[in-house]
Amino acid sequence: MVKLSKSEEQLMEIIWERKTAFMKEIIESYPDPKPANTTIATLLKRIREKKFIDFKLFGNSRQYFPLVKKEDYFSQHVNGLIRSFFGNSALKFASFFTKETNLSKKELEQLKSIIDQEIEKKKKL
């Protein structure tokens, strides 16, 4: 899957959150100082060329919508990170993640609960 730049990811976050958005709505979603219309138009064009979004025409206005799910995009990049930095070992990644991210006791317990649920699912297969 193609990687987005930071500015493209920021724009995609808006589209993912809104589900559909016209240019005006996208610009309104940015914090001040807002980017120029031309900047947003350029980003939209690049993201569309990468096949992350498309649009429907309403008169002269384009309503943009995502073609790629946020979860699919980030899952692809997490898996790439695991391949590149952890020798394709999810176990090494999980070990690193739990030790280096300063998770609280409560967060670690929640993570353990998630893992326990996944173990139960695997037992049923």
Map the helices and strands.
Blueprint: H1 6-18, E1 21-22, H2 23-29, H3 37-49, E2 53-58, E3 61-66, H4 70-85, H5 90-100, H6 105-123
Antiparallel strand pairs: 1-3, 2-3
Helix pairs in contact: 1-3
Question: Can you give a write-up of this model?
Answer:
This protein has 125 residues and is mainly alpha-helical. It has a domain at 6-66: Winged helix-like DNA-binding domain superfamily/Winged helix DNA-binding domain (Arc Repressor Mutant, subunit A, Orthogonal Bundle). The protein has 6 helices and 3 strands, in the order H-E-H-H-E-E-H-H-H. The chain has helices at residues 6-18, 23-29, 37-49, 70-85, 90-100, 105-123, and strands at 21-22, 53-58, 61-66. It has a 3-stranded antiparallel sheet with strand order 1-3-2. A hairpin with a 2-residue loop joins strand 2 (53-58) and strand 3 (61-66). Helix 1 (6-18) packs across helix 3 (37-49). It starts with 5 loop residues before the first helix and ends with a helix. The mean pLDDT is 92.
Number of helices: 6
What class would the helix/strand composition place it in?
Answer: mainly alpha
* Strand adjacency order, main sheet: 1-3-2
What's the average pLDDT? 92
